Amino acid sequence: MAPNKRVGAAYRAMGSLGIDESKVKSALKKLLKVFDKNWELIEAENYRVLADAIFEDDDNMVPEMKKKTRTEDIHDTHDSLPSFSNNQEDETECEEAQMHIESVQPLKRLRLRGQESQPLHPLTNCATSPPSKRAKLEDNALHEASSGKKPQDKPGSSDGNPRIEAQPLPPQDDIVDKGKQPASTQVLQRGRKLTSERASPSIPSKEPTVEAGKFLLPNNTMPRPHTMIIPKDEPIDEVLDYEMPIAVERLFNDFFLSEPSSVRDSSLKNDIAGKHVSHVTVTSSECRDGVRDEDVIPTSNEEATCNIELASSTLGDVKLSLSCSSALQGSDFRMPSRDQLIKMMEDKCLRSYKIADPNFSVKKLLRDICDCMLEFRNTSNDDPEESSMNVDASKNSQAPSTLSVVRNKDLDMFCHISNGSINVKPYDPQSFLPLAPLNGLNDAVLVSEMDQTTNDFLQNNVRTELEDSMSPNSHSLVVFPQNELTADDIRSFHDVSDLTKGEENVGIPWVNETTNDFPPSFNYITQNLVFRDAFVNISLSRVGIEDCCSTCMGNCVLSIPCACANKTGGEFAYGPLGLLKERFLEECIAISRNPQRHFFFCKNCPLERCKNDGGLDPCKGHLKRKFIKECWCKCGCGKQCGNRAIQRGITSKLQVFFTSEGKGWGLRTLEDLPKGAFVCEFVGEILSVKELHERSMKCTEKGKYTYPVLLDANWDSGYVKDEEALCLDAASFGNIARFINHRCFDANLVEIPVEVEDPGHYYYHFAFFTARKIAAQEELTWDYGIDFDDNDHPVKLFQCRCGSKFCRHMKSILYGLIVFEHNRKLRFFLRFDRGLRII
Ligand SMILES: C[S@@+](CC[C@H](N)C(=O)[O-])C[C@H]1O[C@@H](n2cnc3c(N)ncnc32)[C@H](O)[C@@H]1O
């Protein structure tokens, strides 16, 4: 009989590790038996289980040899060595045994270190699908292969055995596991019981009790910061690395959420067959009926038909994802609806289990699974508040077919069920990259590689702050695109939990409940930065005694107006609570809403000048605004002075979201805001208007746009030099304000120029304040002041979808239509629905 190629390959692989073929044979035999001849399991990770099994054999042999040596020592110490020498085989074995006492650990370390880039330990893959049947050994094949070509010896190893002492020992600290026991086939029989039976939070689940084939484990093919060996004696709990968020997001949701089933099927098939799909954890031959408990067959990804994935993060958040492939079901396979699937499962369970709670439900089962996962995590968490989890299944989310599971008010998770896909998707402040692996990308790219110190630091310092800034709403499902990604896309990733990348006092999360889009790529900055030519002279010497309140102390707004207040028109703009005073605010709103009354026209307008097109068109007008002058570091008051509102930065809970009205991304508040509150500044690159003009031209050519704001509130004071005619552009460098959309006339924010460090009036801060009380969840808007008939406006014109009944754009469209209709005698249907729509 021809030698079995797989056997031969196994010998060669072990040979390349310097392992003697006699050891390979017996270990291989055992494994084939245990694994029911499933070669994939044996071959996984370059025959890792085989190597481990060999080491284990050696380990077992060591005590025997030691015992023997000790016995002979007692009888005759001097005779013991010769007696071994007389027996060549025994001597060799003894040598091996001795050698393994010393060196099996380093060998394993070295091997692991070399495999760092490989998928994780096969343990979990195998463990999720262990064989349930026994089979005959492949004796013949083994025999023939073992009598074939001898594996090449390692250099320095004359007898074919590994000479460990020749290999450098890695530092002990590098090793995550204890290194005493190899991951062995014994471990494969272990698992974690995931039933509704709760583990007591005080008793860590150290004794996995699930039989082979009946348990689920998190998919561990994703990379981890610390690849580790799982010592065989240690419980499976150790496999779960709760120190790091596990970024497993298969997100078959894309397929399940919206597309017709036929589309879904083909996409899914491609995905499953593709290399990227590597998270097969449970495979069932009868997945038509859901996940089958018995006869779980380990299989390759290509054969996968049913996946269950669990993922958790350090916060105890759990994601469970089910997916089903049509690969083995035939072309007419259709994914059942969520309700069909649940009903089918419930019927099956009620049929199968003689004693079942009459109120048994699959949803409850899933929640229980999630609870169990969380409890595993909570056992290591002493915080009683976190340990007591409140599952509220009745809470509905906005998404259809969604089940919300809320753990507690501050740290909740969002369990989404939609057509076979169940996600518990939390806000995860520790992940610096999106949680989802995306097609065409190696998962490794997407998992933050934090070392323990960074991780600990974040846990101690950042998480609480970020958690505080979150609301349950912000944990909603985020669907990541499944398209191929470019390097640019990868660069544009924004942390779901904090788009500001930690730059602001508060984290500002983003959500997209509408499309698969990510927020646009830009660099987050909290302070305006000069691009190149803009003249911004911030120097202490320019701030004269009349421009600051050097003799003030404490909180200026509580005492008589200081020099800074004088510059604001004789009194402080802010009241004692830090809100803008009503009268001041109303004046500012009036300027924005009735600009015609506050326009001034420059004699030599920098905007017209910078066009450099020969002629000089007349100035189109600028708004003369009211300024706020805040106290600054040259003042005697402290940082808590009430006249330093914008300097304290963003304090409100905000969220970037994808609007449903076609405006792209927008900014909303997650909490009620009072009238007159500072929200944020418009931050960007400081450009001269000339630079802006040049940039706009270039951008337009490339189909890109600038996000400019003119700092023209003081251009009426005389001739404005080119380098002093400034603007801000937030397209590439900006802050959260770049997401604030326009609303005609009745916007809920008002923009006010604020001077802080430059008394020159040409450079100032462009700050947004609430124009009225704003309720939580309301989108924040400001009136860009666009003339929709002015094609020359520095802001790229768009079709306004502000929904305001005062919408200027719609008015002009309506006017145009009426004229058109009148002239052409054509009929148009107009519908007044959230503003004017043309149908
Ligand atoms: C400063 S950005 C605001 C954020 C933007 N929506 C985004 O997705 O990045 C300005 C752009 O948003 C869009 N936009 C803002 N307000 C809008 C409105 N009322 N209707 C339609 N589009 C709007 C326009 O495309 C505009 O050029």
Automatic annotation (TrEMBL):
PROSITE patterns: PRE_SET, SAM_MT43_3, SET
InterPro entries: Pre-SET_dom, SET_dom, SET_dom_sf, SUVR4/1/2, WIYLD_dom_sf, WIYLD_domain
Record bears the keyword Protease: no
Name by which UniProt lists this protein: Uncharacterized protein
Subcellular location: Chromosome
Major localization listed first in the record, in broad terms: nucleus
Annotated Gene Ontology cellular component terms: chromosome; nucleus
UniProt keywords, alphabetically: Chromosome
